[in-house]
Amino acid sequence: VGLLGAGTIGSEVFNQITLREKELRDSFPDAAFEVKKVLVRDPLKNRRVSIPQELLTTQLDVVVDDSSVDIIVSLLGIADVEYEAILKALMAGKKVVTANKDVIARNGQELLQTAVNKNSALYFEAAVAGGIQVVDNLTGRYGLNHFYAISAILNATSNYVLSRMTSAGAESEQALLEAQEKGYAEPNSENDLNGKDAAYKIAILVSLAFREGWVNPDNIFTKGIDSLELSDFEYALEMGYVIKLIADAQRTEGSLDVWVSPTLVHKNHPLASVNGVTNGILLSGNPIGQIKLEGLGAGSEPTSASVLSDIMRAAQDGTPLNINLDSAQVMEPGESVGRNYIRMTVLDRPGVTAEITKIIGDNRINIDEIRQLESATDGTLANTVFLTGFSGQGSLHRAIREISDLDVCQKINSVMRVMR
């Protein structure tokens, strides 16, 4: 094994291979697992585990060109650098394991095709949902099923933040700080909060599950949790919902409907109970029906467990992944259909609600419920929530623009999807 990177995950992988040498030898009596080289930026740096100095190198070519290295494990973390390293290793005919969802989501088509061309293989179990190991299921034992829907909680950091805001009434900044202190979140959590991390992961899952081609994450409607306020959580709880960052995909005629958005999830929905740093994935297909996968989505141990599983698969198999590598057709966001939650601040006077409901109705959107908490009005302004029926997102956003132009509307505070 050639290890690229010896950070949190890389150190844990090195540690596990070293500690479990006997187990590996018993499982693979004809092979010996050994870390031959470790690529690092600074050979003198103090690390979580002790790595012999003679294994360390600062040169990628030293690892890739070593004929005794069969499997490259790339855990560099920086997308551009990792992409180049993975491509170089595949071009050299090495089997490659990575945990980088950015690289797989954005460059998966090219890298997987390179693996086919070079009769090598690329493994990325740890790129999605930590320790759940959903990639192995989708490419292996679930492979003969026809999946048509995925709903998932795929980002541990945002799920921890939303869970704390729900259960403890914590502000988002406070909840994020807690997550960082506990090691559940990176110092820079921008992609966790803005939804991009979840978009990368759902792009990978849809590409593997639906087999309609590779999904470009740039084509996925993506909205994060940055703008949510505690008022949204109060309303959600009163109406029997919790708020989750949902990554969703539906197979439709001619295209795939894929989106990431904060969502009101009904308390009886299977994903409503997925809290903290846990990830949850709901798969629907034929003939398997609906199944729920749940497990830790963050931390060095579940991630390194997935990396180790891939190393085992590479040692046993090593054949290229056989999936559709054409470009998938993703639906335009405005064509997507769903229920929605709209919270707005309006003037507290007679006729305002009627004026707003008329605009919503004129855009052919049904209203299922209107709510106003007693604490949400001060006699001049009122905080009002509308739950809509199914409608196209294009119609919804047209209605919101028209409402925003009204003198009686002070602000559109929140717009979210609704799942029952």
From TrEMBL:
ACT domain segment(s): 341-417
EC assignment: the record states 1.1.1.3
| Alphabetical list of Gene3D superfamilies matching this protein | 3.30.70.260, Dihydrodipicolinate Reductase, domain 2, NAD(P)-binding Rossmann-like Domain
Binding of NADPH occurs at 101
Residues of the active site are: 201
Binding residues for NADP(+), per the UniProt record?
4-11
Gene Ontology biological process terms, A to Z: methionine biosynthetic process; threonine biosynthetic process
InterPro entries found in the cross-reference section: ACT-like_dom_sf (IPR045865), ACT_dom (IPR002912), Asp/hSer_DH_NAD-bd (IPR005106), HDH (IPR016204), HDH_cat (IPR001342), NAD(P)-bd_dom_sf (IPR036291)
Pathway where it operates? Amino-acid biosynthesis; L-threonine biosynthesis; L-threonine from L-aspartate: step 3/5; Amino-acid biosynthesis; L-methionine biosynthesis via de novo pathway; L-homoserine from L-aspartate: step 3/3
- SUPFAM superfamilies reported for this sequence: ACT-like, Glyceraldehyde-3-phosphate dehydrogenase-like, C-terminal domain, NAD(P)-binding Rossmann-fold domains
Keywords on this record?
Amino-acid biosynthesis, Methionine biosynthesis, NADP, Oxidoreductase, Threonine biosynthesis
Record: residues binding L-homoserine: 186
Q: Which family does it belong to?
A: Belongs to the homoserine dehydrogenase family.
Query: Which NCBIfam families does UniProt cross-reference here?
Result: PRK06349.1
- This chain's protein is named Homoserine dehydrogenase
Q: Which organism is it from?
A: Candidatus Curtissbacteria bacterium RIFCSPHIGHO2_02_FULL_40_16b
